[in-house]
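Troubleshooting log. The previous structure file for this entry was overwritten by mistake, so regenerating from the original sequence record. Sequence copied from the archived sheet and checked twice against the printout by T.R.
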Amino acid sequence: MRKLLLTAAAVFGMAGTAWAGAPLTLQQQIEANQKALEETCAPNCRHPFYEPSQKEWEATAARLSAETEVHLRQMGMSPRTAQLAAWAGQHRPYSACAHYVAQLTADYENGEDRPDYDNNLIISIEHSGTCERKNLD
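Regenerated output below.
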C-alpha cells in the first residue's frame, strides 16, 4: 500500500509540475497529492494520507533518473550523454533534450520498434550537444 501511495504521489507530483510554470515545492506537491488522493477515494476514504519525506522524494527521483540512464545506454547512447540526458530530464524538463529523452524512453518502455527513428535521434543528440548543460537553457 505504501508503494502504491508513493507511486501515486510521484505521478501526481510530476503531473503537476508538467503544467505549472515553475517546479512545485515539496510542500505544494504534498498538498496537491493529498487533494487528488482525497478526491479519488471520497467519500469512503479509510486510509490516512501518507506524506513522503524529502529523502523519499529524492530516492524516487534518483531511481527514475538511473532507470532513464540505463534505458538510454541500452538503446545505444554513450554513457556521458546518457548521464547528461537523465540529468536534463530531471532538472530541465522543458528543454529539447528532455523532450527527446521522453520520446526515446517512451519507445523503450512501450516496446516500440522504431530503430531507424530512435537510432537517428540518438546520433543527432550525440553529435549536436543538445544535452550538454550549456545548451539546456
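The helical segments are 2-19, 26-41, 54-74, 79-91, 96-110, 115-128. Archived copy saved in two places this time.
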